[in-house]
Amino acid sequence: MTTNSSSPTPDAEPVETNASQADPSATSHAPLTRAGAAWVATSVALLLLICLIVFILENSSKVEVQFLGMSGTIPLGMALLIAAVGGGVVVAIAGVARVTQLRRNARHTRHSPSSP
Fold first, then answer.
1. Where, by residue number, does the polypeptide cross the bilayer (predicted)?
2. Which among 7, 64, 80, 107 would be 20 to 30 A from 21, CA to CA?
């Protein structure tokens, strides 16, 4: 026996409408504030720091490192951390140079007389 799905049965539940259309306060969120964003950023940074500490502690075997004629031994985790920080410094220097260049161009464009 087949039933017609288009006709409602007495025990069928009514179809609900979208909650945001029925009650606008149902989906409203607390406004994003600077303090809230700072807490989220602090929490993420703390989790990354914990992961970094675990990584350094797990990679404590000594490796020989040679750089510019100097050589020595250092824990592997520390060597990788120093390399990562050095790479970050290089990227930051390049970013600062580019931002400075863009600001200089914007200032030059703003102060130069416009040509017809």
1. 37-57, 77-97
2. 7
Cα–Cα dist 94/100, whole Å: 10
Using an 8 Å Cβ cutoff, are 77 and 60 in contact?
yes
Helix (H) or strand (E) holding 67: strand 62-67
Q: Apex CA 91: angle with CA 63 and CA 83, to 5°?
A: 5
Q: What is the pLDDT of residues 90-115, one digit of tens each?
A: 999 999 999 999 999 988 888 776 65
Distance CA 95, CA 30 (A): 34
Inter-residue contact 56 to 78 (CB < 8 Å): yes
For the entire predicted model, the pTM comes to: 0.52
